[in-house]
Amino acid sequence: MNEKETDIIDVINPATGESAGTVKRCTKDDVHSAIEMAEDAFSGWAAKSPRERAKLLFLSAQEIRERQTELAELLTAEQGKPLFEAKNEIQGCAAVLEYYASISGTVRGDFLPKSDYGYSFTVKKPLGICGAIIPWNMPVLILAWKTGPALVAGNCLIVKPSSKTPLTSQKIAAILHSCGIPEDVFSVVTGSGSEAGSALAESRRIAALSFTGSVETGNFVEKLSCGTGKRLTLELGGSDPMIVCSDADIDSAVAGAVAGRYYNCGQTCTAVKRLYVMEDIAEEFKRKLTEKVSQIKTGNGMIKGTKMGPLIDMDAREKISMLISGIERDYGAEILTGGKITGTPELKSGSFFEPTVIAGAPKDCFLFTEEIFGPVLPVAVVKDMDEAIEEANRTKFGLGASVWTKSLKNSFEATEMLDAGIVWVNRHLKIPPEVPFGGEKESGSGRENGLSALDRYMKEKTVIMTP
Ligand code: NAD
Q1: Matching InterPro entries, A to Z (predicted)?
Q2: Exposure of 265 by Cβ count < 10 A (0-12 exposed, 13-18 middle, 19+ buried)?
């Protein structure tokens, strides 16, 4: 919301501070025009068979795969993540579109038993014009999570990407159009959240809105949407706990924590944001973790060998830096590695921050209760599973959680007791397209992925036929 008010948005490469490209700053009028065009296109798109719509999504996914290098380079330039992560994300986008295309023929209602009134059945129908508001951290994957089910179900979709990362979304839209999905059926409106985003939230002509972003903005979007009759899906922030039990395979848990926290420079909704380690393995675990984290190669994501890129911008770096600055003095914690702005001369124009591990902070301090969106991992020692679960459930969040153990009993207890939309056992972070995903508590409502997301984009009509 602090972008300079011109009609162009300059997208800044966070690794270099240079421009990665520009986009139009769409106004509310631009959003209303996109809605109008979609309304004209809706009946034609909805009348196609799911198989016909799926064919166009398959073609699009194939083209995205063929152009993955070009798309990944653009994503790295605008978002900062290393090229290998950007490629994973582009491939993930193609996989999600393929998944929804592949299940297009499974859309069906119910046939109900004959009653005194005759035969009853339900049919599933598209909702109409849907909106999607997307954050900057996984802009392409999250775009696919919303686009696949919305289009297969027969809706038109208007996507508002983050103004920090609109470039790859625009290019993906051009690919979908070149593969036969009409421009008014699927469109991207670039612009600020306060202008273009709120126009989607406030509109009564948008039948469903899927929002992904912070809890704070999500709550605001919910207020804007209130009374408009739209179906709202909120995919919000998280502070995922990872519990490492005494019987865990320590090396694989350490590797899981490193991948789970420092992927995407710690800017993933379901990143490992808090570690709870049982006391009898805590020293060995912290030593191995610190050693691995201190070896993470930070740098420009375009350079081969880079394992962690910059934070999204200088403001994000300033925020992390401020948070950490008093942690030893004010909370008696110990920074085991990292803790500073990365100081090498070749990295000085980017928003780099060292991968950081912190031990000994009180379990009720902000590191454990808030969402820290950067490469900082606090580690706490717990005496047993009861304490681990109590601490894990302490926050207002309920997105993901993981438990690392060889015991079936621990796995059952954790999966049963943890307040989270998704619980992994001996893994964290990865979510295949067919697996539903979403939050509990203040982490949101509704689901993305799998058949659950397809349902979010369809309405059920009941027919009772009396002979
Ligand atoms: P954000 O809330 O700042 O912005 C998200 C989107 O909302 C952007 O497109 C922004 O332009 C738009 N927006 C801002 N103000 C708006 C308004 N008044 N009306 C309508 N739209 C508005 O979030 P961010 O910084 O881009 O992303 C990081 C957050 O997203 C983190 O909290 C992260 O955990 C969360 N996230 C959640 C998931 C999930 O699936 N649960 C996935 C990725 C990210």
Answers
A1: Ald_DH/histidinol_DH, Ald_DH_C, Ald_DH_CS_CYS, Ald_DH_N, Aldehyde_DH_dom
A2: buried
